[in-house]
Specification:
35% of the residues lie in helices and 21% in strands. By secondary structure, it is α/β, with parallel strands linked by helices. Bound molecules: 5-amino-5-deoxy-1-O-phosphono-D-mannitol.
C-alpha cells in the first residue's frame, strides 16, 4: 500500500517525482504529496484525492529543487484528508518524511513526543518519524555536529531501531539539500541508478522510464544517496557493496494502449499470457517443463498454499488439480489467518506462497513464519521447503523463498487482478502435471497418456481464449445495462468451478460496489436461498462433467424462487433454462476454469464501466497490500 519515490540529481525533481507517482498510483490513490529541497528551504505540496489534484497544485505553485520525495497514499492511520497526506514534516518544517508501511508502536512514540511538547498535525503513524529524526539531529547539533549528509544518515539510523512494524521510507532535510536517506524493513524499496542521479521507488514502473539499472534494497538496509553516489548499509550497520541488476523488456512500463481501462486491456491480453506460458512451459516434446529444482518435488507428501484475495481463488483451483491430478493432499489457507492459527507441522510439506505482486504483507509474513517454525527442528523431514508463484520474481517474495515460479504475465495495473489470475491458474496446471508425472503409479494419478492429452489441450488454449474474450466482450457490453439497478448478485459453481464463482463475486464487488456472494451451488439450499427474489440475479457456472446435472438442478431451485438466471455454460438444450446465456465452447471440466473466468471478468468490467465507475482504481483498494 502506498507508493513512495525519491530523487536526487542534477535536474528538477518535481516533474520526475510526479511521473514516478503516476506509475505508482495503483498502490494507493486517496491523496498524494511531494517535498523538494533547495538552498531556500523545503517546499511541500499535498492534495487530497487523485494525483491530478497534486499535479494541478504543482503547476500552479511549483516546488523547486534537485532533491525530493513523493508519496501516493492508501489510508491506514487517519482519514484520506490533506492533513494526513505525506510528506510529514518536523516542527521546524525543515525535515520531511514519506513512508509506506505501518509503524506499529506509533502510539507510545507519539505520546512520548507530545509529553515533550511536540505538536502533531496529522493522525498518521508516520508523523512520529520526522519528529524523532529532528530530535536526534538537534541533539547531535548541541554536541557540536554540523549539518551534513552523514549527520542526516546517522540521525535516521539512530531512530530506525525504535520503530516497530514494516516500513519503506525516504527523508530529506533542507539544511543539506544534496542528501537523501532511504530505508526499508519488510516493505519494498528499489534504487534506480541514472547518470549522476538516483531515483528510489516502491516498484519498478516508477524506475523503468528513468533507468534500467536497479539495486533492490534488502530487508533492514539503509542508504545515503547524494549526487556523487550511494552509501549502503545492511541491517547490522555494515557498509555493503552490491552489483545492480538490469530491468529487461517492456513489461515494466504501464501503457493502456487504445483501451478505455487498464482492466479491459489486461483481460484482452490473456490469450497472450497463455501463449507465452505455453511457449515457455509446454514444449511439444515434453509433458511440461518448469524451471524448478527437483528438490521442490522430491518426497513431497503434503502441500499447503498461502494466499489472499484473487490469488487465493487461483490457489483453490490449484489445490483441486494437485489432489485430483497428482494425488497430493493440499490445503489452501488465507495467509492473513494462517499466522495466527497455523496447523500442526507435518513432515515432507511443500509450502507455496501465491501472490501476483510478491509484496502482499499477509502472504509474506505467513511464509516467513512457516520458514521459522520448521527451521528450528532437528528432523530433516520438517526442513522448510518454500515455493513462490508470482508475476514479480524480483519482489520481496522472490527474495524470501528459494524457489520461484514466474507466471510472466507482464505488468498488471488494474487493481482487479485478471491476467495474473489466469497466469496463476496456468502455473498450477503446470505444477500439477509436473507432480503427476513424478508420481506415476500412485493411487488416483492419471496415466501418462491422459496427462499428455491434457497438456496438448492446454497448448490449444490461446486460440480458444482469443475467440472467447472477443465474443464475451461484445456480449457483456450489451448486457451491462440490465444490471443498472442491481444491488445483490449470487454466483454459483461446484467442484473446480466453485473458486471461479468466488472470483466472479470478488471481481463484481471490488469494481462495481455491488454486493455479491460466491457460493458452492449445493450449499444454496442451506441458507442463502432465502435471499432470492426477482431482483437478485444468480450467475451459475455449469460445465458438462461430474457436477453438471447437479449444478443445473441448483439453478432450477433458484429459478423457482424467481431469480434471474445467468448461465455460464455451453449452448445446449439444458442451457435453455437460463434467462441469459454466456456461452462456453466445448471444454473438459478439469480445464474449464481457464475459460469460465473470462465471462466473470468481462461481466464485472462492463457492469462497472456502464455505471461510470473508476474501474482501474476502485475506492478503498490498492493493487498491492503491503500492510497487515
Ligand atoms: O498481489 P497479491 O496477489 O498477493 O494480492 C492479493 C489480493 O490483494 C488481490 O488478489 C486482490 O484481492 C485483488 N484486488 C483482486 O482483484
Amino acid at each position: 500500500m502506498c507508493g513512495i519515490v525519491a530523487l536526487i540529481g542534477s535536474r528538477e525533481a518535481g516533474p520526475q517525482l510526479l511521473e514516478g507517482l503516476r506509475q505508482l498510483e495503483y498502490r494507493g490513490y486517496d491523496s498524494a504529496g511531494i517535498a523538494t529541497v533547495d538552498p531556500d528551504g523545503l517546499h511541500c505540496l499535498k492534495a487530497e484525492g487523485k494525483l491530478v489534484n497534486l499535479i494541478a497544485r504543482f503547476e500552479a505553485e511549483g516546488a523547486p529543487g534537485h532533491c525530493g520525495i513523493g508519496h501516493t497514499r492508501w489510508a491506514t492511520h487517519g482519514k484520506p484528508e490533506e492533513r494526513n497526506a505525506h510528506p510529514h514534516l518536523d516542527g521546524s518544517g525543515q525535515l520531511a518524511v514519506v513512508q509506506n508501511g505501518i509503524i506499529e508502536n506509533h502510539r507510545p512514540l507519539r505520546e512520548g513526543l507530545q509529553a515533550e511538547g511536540v505538536r502533531f498535525l496529522s493522525d498518521t503513524d508516520t508523523e512520529v518519524i520526522p519528529h524523532l529524526v529532528a530530535r536526534r539531529l538537534a541533539h547531535q547539533e548541541t554536541l557540536g555536529a554540523k549539518p551534513s549528509p552523514a549527520l542526516l544518515l546517522q540521525a535516521v539510523r539512530e531512530v530506525l531501531p525504535g520503530l516497530h512494524g514494516a516500513y519503506a521510507l525516504a527523508v530529506v532535510w533542507s539544511r543539506v539539500p544534496g542528501a537523501l536517506v532511504v530505508a526499508r524493513r519488510q516493505a519494498p524499496l528499489l534504487i534506480g541508478l541514472g547518470e549522476g542521479e538516483f531515483l528510489c521507488a516502491s516498484d519498478t514502473p516508477a524506475l523503468a522510464g528513468f533507468t534500467r539499472t536497479i539495486l533492490p534494497m534488502e530487508d533492514g538496509e539503509v542508504a545515503l544517496l547524494t549526487p556523487l553516489g550511494i552509501e549502503l548499509y545492511n541491517a547490522s550497520g555494515e557498509r555493503v557493496q552490491r552489483t545492480p541488476s538490469l530491468l529487461t523488456g517492456t513489461e515494466h512500463m504501464a501503457d493502456k494502449r487504445s483501451f478505455r481501462h487498464f482492466m479491459l486491456k489486461e483481460i484482452h491480453e490473456q490469450p497472450e499470457t497463455a501463449a507465452l506460458w505455453v511457449a515457455r512451459h509446454l514444449p511439444e516434446d515434453a509433458l511440461v517443463a518448469l524451471p524448478l529444482d527437483e528438490s521442490v518435488y522430491a518426497g513431497v507428501e503434503n502441500i499447503q498454499i498461502l494466499a489472499c484475495g484473487t490469488s487465493r481463488h487461483a490457489s483453490q483451483v490449484g489445490a483441486h488439480l494437485l489432489e485430483q491430478l497428482a494425488g497430493v493432499p493440499t490445503n489452501v489457507f488465507y495467509a492473513s489467518e494462517f499466522r495466527y492459527a497455523p496447523p500442526p507441522l507435518r513432515p515432507h510439506t511443500l509450502t507455496i506462497g501465491v501472490t501476483q505482486s510478491g509484496e502482499t504483507a499477509d502472504t509474506l509474513a505467513a511464509l516467513a513464519m512457516e520458514r521459522e517454525r520448521s527451521q528450528g527442528l532437528a528432523d530433516p523431514a520438517f526442513a522448510p521447503r518454500l515455493l513462490g508463484i508470482t508475476n514479480r520474481p524480483e519482489s520481496s517474495l522472490g527474495r524470501l523463498v528459494p524457489h520461484v515460479l514466474d507466471i510472466g504475465a507482464g505488468i498488471e495495473v488494474g487493481v482487479a487482478a485478471t491476467k495474473t489470475f489466469l497466469g496463476q491458474l496456468l502455473a498450477f496446471y503446470g505444477l500439477a502435471l509436473a507432480f503427476a508425472e513424478r508420481r506415476q503409479g500412485q493411487p488416483g494419478v492419471p496415466d501418462l497418456a491422459s496427462l499428455r492429452r491434457l497438456s496438448s489441450q492446454l497448448r490449444g488454449l490461446p486460440a480458444v481464449l482469443r475467440e472467447l474474450v472477443e465474443d464475451h466482450d461484445a456480449r457483456c457490453a450489451e448486457l451491462a445495462h440490465l444490471f443498472a439497478e442491481t444491488r445483490d448478485v449470487i454466483f454459483l459453481g461446484r467442484g473446480i468451478n466453485y473458486p471461479i464463482a468466488m472470483e466472479g463475486a470478488l471481481k463484481l464487488k471490488e469494481i462495481s460496489y455491488i454486493h455479491a456472494e460466491g457460493y458452492p451451488a449445493g450449499e444454496m439450499k442451506h441458507g442463502p436461498i432465502a435471499l432470492l427474489d426477482s431482483r437478485v440475479p444468480v450467475v451459475s457456472i455449469a460445465v458438462p462433467g461430474m457436477v453438471f446435472d447437479k449444478v443445473l438442478s441448483n439453478a432450477q431451485e433458484a429459478k423457482a424462487r424467481d431469480a434471474q438466471l445467468v448461465g455460464v455454460a455451453p449452448a445446449c438444450p439444458d442451457s435453455e433454462l437460463f434467462d441469459l446465456l454466456l456461452p462456453l465452447p466445448p471444454v473438459e471440466e478439469l480445464l474449464s476454469p481457464l475459460l469460465t473466468v473470462i465471462p466473470m471478468q468481462l461481466l464485472s468490467y462492463h457492469i462497472a464501466a456502464h455505471r461510470g465507475l473508476d474501474v482501474d482504481q476502485p475506492r478503498n483498494l490498492a493493487k498491492s497490500v503491503t500492510v497487515e
